[in-house]
Design a protein that fits this description.
Elements: H1 2-24, H2 29-36, H3 40-45, H4 52-78
Helix pairs in contact: 1-2, 1-4
Length: 80
């Protein structure tokens, strides 16, 4: 059960990381997908019980949150 939760968390982080990079580089979606989702090292790192899935998932979620936050801050300053 614990392993599946970590796996889902890491996979969700990888998806968020892909979406964040896709927002900035929409023409290079194949390269981004290969780098974020299909590299063997990413699959290997996200399949363990130690700190690697937590770190990988956290990087994706934090990158997505920073992207969303900066868009909101930019939009709020634009309304002034």
């Amino acid at each position: 059960m614990y392993l599946s939760l970590l796996g889902f968390f890491a996979f969700g982080g990888c998806i968020r990381l892909f979406k964040t990079f896709y927002h900035f580089y929409p023409n290079q979606y194949r390269e981004i997908a290969l780098a974020c989702l299909f590299r063997p090292c990413v699959i290997y790192w996200s399949s363990g019980l130690l700190k690697d899935p937590v770190t990988l998932g956290s990087v994706g979620y934090i990158a997505c949150a920073v992207n969303i936050f900066t868009k909101k801050v930019k939009n709020s300053f634009g309304q002034l």
